[in-house]
Amino acid sequence: MKRFLVFIAATTSLMLLTPACWAKADSLGINKDCESHPVSDYGMTSITAFSQYQAESKKITDAMASFCNKGKSMGDMGFGAASDQSETESRQWSNANLPGQSDEQKAFRDTTAHLLYYAMLNGFSGFDYPKAPEQNNAPPVTGFSPYETCNAISSDAAEYSTSQLPPNVKISLSEWKQIKSEFEMVCLAGVMNGNGQKPVDKKLMAGLNDIARDVYLQSYKIGSTHPKLSSPEQNDAVREKKNATERAVKEKRNAAIIQQNRKDREKQMVMNHQVQQSVASLRNAVMQRMNHTTDFSGKKCSVKVWLSQKGEVLSAEDESGDAGLCSAALQATKGVKINSMSDDVYNVLRNVTLNFDL
Questions:
Q1: Hey, which of 165, 178, 207, 300 has its CA 20 to 30 A from 245?
Q2: Cα torsion at 14, 19, 21, 26 (round to 10°)?
Q3: Local structure of residue 227 (DSSP, 8 states)
Q4: Among 12, 75, 64, which Cα is nearest to 35's?
Q5: What's residue 178's pLDDT?
Q6: CB atoms within 10 A of CB 117
C-alpha cells in the first residue's frame, strides 16, 4: 500500500500531502495539447451556449490555451499551490476582460473563470478537467457484494490513472494489478463506512490522491444505499481491508514527516558548516591585513562587519574593546573579499561581529 500512495502521487501529481518544497521540474502535463484541447469537451459545452462566447470565442480559447501552457511551467509546485494560483489568476483575467453586470454577463464571466482555472490545472497535471458528472458503472447485482462492486470500480480507476502517464512511461501487468488492488482497498473502506452509515473518513481522504478520493466517495455512496451487511465474516474481511488502508495512509504520512525532518536537519548542518567557514575566512582575511599584531597582545576588540552576498565588505564599525586594536581591525577590513554566499548563508551573515582576542 505504501508503494501505491507514492506511485499514484508521482503519476498524477495530485497528492494532498505535498512535500515542503519541490525540485524544479517540468510539469506532468508537459505533453498536454493546450492549443486544441485545453479543457475537456464536457467543459467546453458549458460555455458555447452563451451568446457572448460566439462574439468572443477566439479571445476565450486563446486565454484557455495560454493558461494551460502556463500550467506546464508550474512543475515545481505542489497541487495545492497550483490550484490556488490558478483560481486567483483565472478570476483576475475574467474580471479584467469580461465586464458587464447583466445576469448573463455575470454567468458567462463565472463560467469562463471556472474553465480557465481548469485549463491551468490541466497543463500542470496532464489531466482533462472538468470531468462530466460521475456515472455509476458498477454492474447491477441482485444482492449487495462489496467485492464485486469494488472489483469494477477499482478496475476503472486503475485504467484511468495509468492512462494519464506520460507516453514514455510504461508499467508491467503486475504493476497494473497492484495498482488495481490498492484502489480496491480504498473502495472497500468507502463501502464499509457508507454501509455502516458512518460519516466520510476525512483523515483517510486527506491522505489520498484525487482519483483515490473519487473511488472512496463513489463506493461510500453505493454502500450507503444498501442494507447493512450482516455476515460477521464479511464484515471482518471488509473492516480489515479498511484498517489496512488507514494504516498505510498513516505510515505514508509519518514517513513523509520523518523524511522532511531529516532533510531539514541535514540542510541545517550544511548551512552551519558554511557559516562557520565564511566567518573563519573573513576573520583570517582581516588578520592577514593587520600589521604588528604583537603590539596588541592581551587586547580585545569586537567589530561589526556588513557584507554583500558576493562576499565583499561594505562597511564596518567597532562595537567594544581596545581603541588601538579596533582601529587597526577597521582599517584591515577595507577591500576584504571572501567567497560568495548562498541565500541561506547570507541571511545569517548579512552582518556579522568579529571578535579579536590577541
A1: 165
A2: -30
A3: P
A4: 64
A5: 82
A6: 24
